[in-house]
Amino acid sequence: MRLKRHKDYKRYMNMYCKTFNFRKPYQVLADADFIQAALDQRMDLRTMIPNVLCDASKQMVTPCTMATLKSRGDEGSGAFIASKRFEKRRCKHQEPVDESICLSEIIADSNPHNYVVGSQSKKLRLKFAMVPGVPLLYIKRANMILEPPSAASLQAGRNIENQKTHASNTELQTLKAVKVSALGKVSMDAKLIKKIDAKKEVKQQKLEVKKAKILKKRAGPKEPNPLSVKKKKVAPTQPVKRKEAPTGEGSEEAPAKKKRKRRKPKSDREGDGGESGAASTPATA
Question: Do 129 and 137 form a contact (C-beta atoms < 8 A)?
């Protein structure tokens, strides 16, 4: 990259950081054609994008973009595998839609999450150029180019600078309350000061009510950590006793229990057999 171009890119990103509160590492949303173009030019986006943005970055891709690459079959298989290395940015779509619709919903009217968009579509880049505070990347042959800030971004930057330098509405109201006499004595109009204080109190009360609502939602009975809680000891189950049948005149006798026959060991049986044999044979004279 040429030195002059590098300086320009650094100036652009500094403007986005100061005016629109961009933070490092920069979050880069890439579309399907941008990933495919990088693959065709044998670019490693994980090293090329930080070089262009002059600082660390996170490459991100939406599920809708991945679905678009997958639908291209063998042509988009390489780009689809490359997109798996990027961080996934969740979208609201349960079923994949056109990636231009998906990216437009994420960027919305003010780019609230401060994304850098990498796209090869001129139509999409022109659409995002109308939104203030959207840095745009695209690939031209073997070079990655960062577009200069759009007219909408520059105008928004001027408005923010004017708000910082000029007096606010509350400051103008306090100036109206100040009175300077002919002798040079400064005094304040009591009625206007009371009105300003009353407005401040109303605003503070509203903020306190909002904070209380948030705390109510967060606060509540917290369940204990299941790993730190002792398990309940299960009481041993006692065998259920059978009710004995009542004995009486009218009642029938209960059947006798069968006795369990036990087999004797072989050695005992042989000993018993020898003794019985000796007893049975008559004594010879």
Answer: no
At 9, the amino acid letter reads Y
If we measure between CA atoms, which residue out of 20, 8, 18 comes closest to residue 54? 8
Tell me which residue of 27, 114, 104 sits closest to 65, measured CA to CA.
Answer: 104
Strand-pair category, 178-180 with 186-188: antiparallel
> What are 2-50's pLDDT values in tens digits?
788 899 999 999 999 999 999 999 999 999 999 999 999 999 999 999 9
Chain-centre distance of CA 240, in angstroms? 54
Place of tokens 């401040």: 200
CA distance 160 to 19: 7
Give me the torsion for CA of 53, 58, 63, 64, rounded to 10°: -10
pTM assigned to the model: 0.61
Enumerate the H helices of the chain as residue ranges.
3-20, 32-40, 45-53, 63-71, 77-83, 99-107, 122-129, 151-165, 169-177, 190-218, 266-280
Q: What is the DSSP letter of 131?
A: S
Q: For residue 30, give both structure tokens.
A: 């890439």
Cβ-Cβ contacts under 8 Å for 29 (sequence gap 6 or more): 60, 61, 62, 89, 103, 106, 115, 116, 117, 118
User: Distances in Å between the alpha carbon of 102 and those of 63, 72, 79, 98, 109?
Assistant: 9, 18, 19, 7, 14
**Using CA atoms, how far apart are residues 191 and 198, in angstroms rounded to an integer?**
11
- The whole-angstrom separation of Cα 91 and Cα 71 is 18
pLDDT tens track for 124-183 = 999 999 999 999 999 998 899 999 999 999 999 898 888 878 777 777 777 777 776 666
DSSP, residue by residue, 213-272: HHHHHH-SPPPPPTTTSPPPPPPPPPPPPPPPPPPSSSSPPPPPPPPPP-PPPHHHHHHH
